[in-house]
């Protein structure tokens, strides 16, 4: 059932501040980490081959995964495969994919129209997009779904189908069926149940998963400001400036909304400890890279997952004069404060081997 009712293919630009995390349960599954790609690709390939033995897509599972995983795409590969099934029976049906007497294969198994004549095959007197390979079609289609659908608030198969193929009665039920089949046969693609305030604690260096789970503010090298800060949803959390004075002054920090409950619990336990310590200088969210010049890895401050306490008395070596030459642990943090953070899932910078960062706690594993 080829749905030749698709929308024009053209470059859409996102309105400012669009979050690449939008897309509801159709975003790339956060538990699908790169070490699981091989098994997941195999499962996709077997699914496609099981649906249509002759499908040329039955060896392209990894392409679907890598396209969906791109930071600026962030789409569930199961959706891309399900639509391929509904549009062209996994690239086996129609002149746009070189069948039914076509002279040229346009690899256009998603039936994407062109703004001008591209595919040399004339089908239904319409202009169609031409791709040069299955890989290129998958890649372009992933970006297209992100720009035109998920980032526009069309975040369910029903909402997508109404726009994508408004005259195709079968599109929504077919895509839904295929999507459900894939996520049942290959559960790694099943959308995670996201609950606000319930944070998943990810690996500290798994930046790609973090971007998907918490949003990507797109830090700029050498600056403390990102290109897309609205992608990270922050809430403010209060703390007692000195826990030994329960009625004393309060401060607040901005943290990711998914970890707000974790921070609240930490501050509550610190307050209950009644420790006599002044939290005078506390910083949290800041869209930046680790270090100022390397610009390779994101700081967890860029996700709203990290907090710095009293930097002057808890310096980050070797960036502070006091420990410029020697990597030593200098801290005035009470042991119970450190213990409370750690018990609640935080890693302490004072435990780092290569570079002591005593002020720093981050929520990751
Ligand atoms: Zn820090």
Write a short abstract of this structure.
The chain is α+β, with helices and mostly antiparallel strands. It has helices spanning 37-51, 61-69, 77-88, 134-148, 157-164, 171-185, 207-214, 260-273, 335-343, and strands spanning 234-240, 250-256, 282-283, 306-309, 346-348, 360-363.
Would you write up a description of this structure?
The protein is α+β, with helices and mostly antiparallel strands. It has 9 helices and 6 strands, in the order αααααααββαββαββ. The protein folds into 2 domains: 24-189, Orthogonal Bundle (Lysozyme), CATH 1.10.530; 207-363, Muramoyl-pentapeptide Carboxypeptidase, domain 2, CATH 3.30.1380. The chain has helices at 37-51, 61-69, 77-88, 134-148, 157-164, 171-185, 207-214, 260-273, 335-343, and strands spanning 234-240, 250-256, 282-283, 306-309, 346-348, 360-363. It has a 4-stranded antiparallel β-sheet. The chain starts with 36 loop residues before the first helix and ends with a strand. It binds zinc ion. Residues 301, 306, 308, 360 line the site of zinc ion (ZN). Zinc ion is lined by residues 301, 306, 308, 360.
């Amino acid at each position: 059932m080829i749905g030749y009712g698709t929308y024009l293919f053209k470059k859409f630009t996102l309105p400012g501040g669009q979050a690449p995390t939008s897309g509801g349960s159709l975003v790339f599954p956060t538990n699908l980490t790169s070490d699981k790609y091989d098994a997941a690709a195999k499962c996709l390939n077997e699914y496609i081959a099981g649906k249509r033995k002759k499908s040329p897509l039955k060896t392209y599972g990894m392409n679907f995964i890598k396209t969906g995983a791109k930071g600026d795409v962030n789409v569930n590969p199961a959706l891309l495969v399900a639509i391929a099934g509904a549009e062209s029976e996994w690239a086996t049906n129609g002149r746009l994919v070189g069948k039914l007497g076509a002279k040229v294969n346009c690899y256009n198994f998603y039936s994407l129209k062109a703004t001008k004549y591209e595919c040399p095959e004339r089908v239904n007197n319409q202009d169609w997009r031409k791709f040069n390979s299955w890989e290129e079609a998958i890649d372009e289609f992933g970006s297209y779904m992100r720009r035109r659908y998920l980032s526009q608030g069309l975040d369910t198969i029903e909402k997508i189908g109404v726009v994508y193929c408004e005259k195709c009665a079968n599109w929504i039920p077919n895509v839904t069926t295929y999507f459900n089949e894939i996520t049942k046969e290959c559960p790694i693609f099943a959308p995670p149940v996201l609950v606000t305030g319930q944070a998943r604690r990810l690996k500290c260096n798994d930046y790609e998963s973090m971007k998907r789970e918490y949003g990507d503010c797109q830090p700029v090298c050498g600056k403390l400001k990102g290109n897309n800060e609205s992608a990270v949803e922050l809430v403010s959390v209060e703390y007692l400036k000195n826990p030994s004075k329960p009625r004393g002054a309060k401060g607040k920090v901005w943290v990711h909304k998914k970890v707000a409950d974790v921070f609240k619990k930490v501050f509550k336990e610190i307050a209950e400890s009644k420790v006599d310590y002044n939290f005078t200088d506390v910083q949290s969210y800041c869209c930046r890279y680790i270090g100022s010049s390397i610009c390779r890895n994101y700081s967890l401050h860029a996700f709203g997952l990290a907090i710095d306490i009293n930097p002057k008395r808890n310096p980050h070596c070797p960036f502070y004069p006091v420990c410029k030459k020697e990597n030593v642990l200098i801290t005035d943090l009470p042991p119970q404060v450190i213990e409370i953070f750690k018990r609640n899932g935080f890693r302490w910078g004072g435990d780092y081997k290569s570079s002591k960062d005593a002020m720093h706690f981050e929520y990751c594993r």
